[in-house]
Amino acid sequence: MTTWTGQGVEVHVQEVALRDGLQSQATLVPTEKKIELIDRLSASGLRKIEVSSFVSPRAIPQLADAEAVFHGITRRPGVIYAALAPNVRGMERAISARADEVNLVMSASESHNRANLRSSSEASFHAIKEAAALAATAGMRIAASLSCSFGCPLEGEIQATAILKWCQRLHEETGIHSISLCDTTGMAYPALVQHLVGLVRKSCPAVSIALHFHNTRGLGVANVFAGLEAGVIHFDAALAGIGGCPYAPGATGNICTEDLIHALELSDYRCGVDLDVLIEAARHLEHLLGQTTPGQVMKAGRRLQGHPAAKHDAREPESLSGRSSTAPTDGPVQGFATSTRTPRG
Ligand code: COA
Ligand code: ZN
């Protein structure tokens, strides 16, 4: 029975805008701007930030400066600065850059794995196994991300048996305790989330499940609530809702961090994050990218943020139409609204 209230339960949000968010951006964000953004995010109360990827710079040129970003950030005590990696080379780079945690990635979809990591899922699993062994010798925290867990744009439905097989093998053969089920192109829906999380919890009870949703079909936050109902408390989200895998056709942004925190706090979940700091950071990111981003709360404001009533002119319509060039548009009222940018779509 769904209650829709968190009753103070703590929810952990990993911020992925600097990794998933930037990996498919046409604009290359300068290293110092990334560093500034991470430092802003560190100050928001978020406890885990994915800083970059240690992948081939040819595959993801947007994140080729991962070492320099790690080097430049101010590390705030209590914040975990994580990175994504697909193999031993990535793990070596993460260790020397002093990442706090490495997120090892493979896809549950054979076709997506080949497109994204240029090998079979089995070969990527072995690359993870090798990287996990190196992590153990270096005392590095690790987690795994299983892309296309809720469906694949190239293959369609991914069988639950495949997800369970990879979760079991990731846990038993590599010692990974935390696995993120990733909805790479927004194919999840609440009933599927509950079903799959239930199956994984049953077959891998020692695994801590995280959920990574993209809002490609507008179901992102609904999926989070389905995940909460199924007992998950770890979620990924990206500031301003940017993101997407460049090797997954049709990929669009992650669920939006500040929209998610806003929704969770209304529902009495505790995130420990200062929403105002996040909203400011989201506007800063939008400015940096020079484009309108999918985030909504940064445009609309919090639920009870007041707006002045529109001024109604008692005169006849003709005189109003004569003033149409200065009349307010149907967007936020100028001079009071939190943002005057036009929402996308
Ligand atoms: N970091 C930096 N360079 C790496 C690397 C890593 N983790 N792994 C491999 N490389 C380099 C190799 O050294 C080699 O360099 P060279 O050509 O200068 O000798 C080159 O990449 C090719 O190596 P190879 O093992 O043949 O890899 P590949 O070309 O088959 O690519 C991956 C495999 C996994 C490295 C690449 O597809 C990749 O990085 N994908 C990541 C995609 C991604 O991040 N997607 C979004 C997140 S889900
Ligand atoms: Zn993603």
Summarize the structure.
The protein is α/β, with parallel strands linked by helices and 345 residues long. It contains 13 helices and 8 strands.
Q: Would you write up a description of this structure?
A:
By secondary structure, the chain is an alpha/beta fold. The chain contains 13 helices and 8 strands. It has helices spanning 17-21, 31-42, 66-72, 88-96, 110-117, 121-138, 160-174, 190-203, 220-229, 257-266, 275-289, 297-300, 317-321, and strands spanning 12-15, 48-53, 80-85, 101-107, 141-147, 178-183, 208-213, 234-237. Helix 9 links the parallel strand 7 (208-213) and strand 8 (234-237). Helix 2 crosses helix 3. The two termini are 34 Å apart. The structure holds coenzyme A (COA) and zinc ion. Zinc ion (ZN) binds next to loops.
Can you count the helices? 13
Helix content: 25-40%
Percentage beta strand:
5-15%
| Biggest pleated sheet | 8 strands, parallel, barrel
Structural domain count: 1
Oligomer: single chain
Low-confidence stretches: 319-345
CATH topology value: TIM Barrel
Strand order of the largest sheet: 1-2-3-4-5-6-7-8
Task: State the end-to-end distance.
Answer: 34 Å
- Strand segment count: 8
- The shape, in one word, is globular
